[in-house]
Amino acid sequence: PELSEEPPAEMVKMTKSKTFQAYLPNCHRTYSCIHCRAHLANHDELISKAMQFLFILMQSFQGSQGRAYLFNSVVNVGCGPAEERVLLTGLHAVADIYCENCKTTLGWKYEHAFESSQKYKEGKFIIELAHMIKDNGWE
């Protein structure tokens, strides 16, 4: 039998591109992961300083690595298992959250607040400023 020589298959250059689960609209000010620039939250989802004043009487949110912001909702974030922790404002059940793209721990999600004055935090997210960068429309 005759052997036919076929040309080699075309080489395909594979590159690992960054794909996020969600992109936030460019028309809004956003916060992104400082490590990989994945979108994390819309500025509109930040709990207002007025609400912080009403509920925590001028106490700013504190993460394990410094100041933090409280958000109603976030994107591109994974959630670990909940555990009870004693925080500055009392006992809470919280779950660490991490960037889905680079796996950096960003903060935590409040699953349950044991004190009635802290119930407003349930279902909300803390992201430490050390892990965020401002994107889109900040001047």
TrEMBL record:
A Pfam family in this protein?
Yippee-Mis18
MF annotations from Gene Ontology: metal ion binding
Keywords (A to Z) from UniProt: Metal-binding, Zinc
Q: Where is the Yippee domain?
A: 29-136
Q: Spell out the InterPro entries in the cross-references.
A: Yippee, Yippee/Mis18/Cereblon, Yippee_fam
Ranges in coiled-coil conformation: none
From which domain of life does this come?
Eukaryota
PANTHER family (UniProt xref): PROTEIN YIPPEE-LIKE CG15309-RELATED (PTHR13848)
Q: Which family does it belong to?
A: Belongs to the yippee family.
What name does this protein carry?
Protein yippee-like
Supply the source organism for this entry. Pomatostomus ruficeps
Name the lineage.
Eukaryota, Metazoa, Chordata, Craniata, Vertebrata
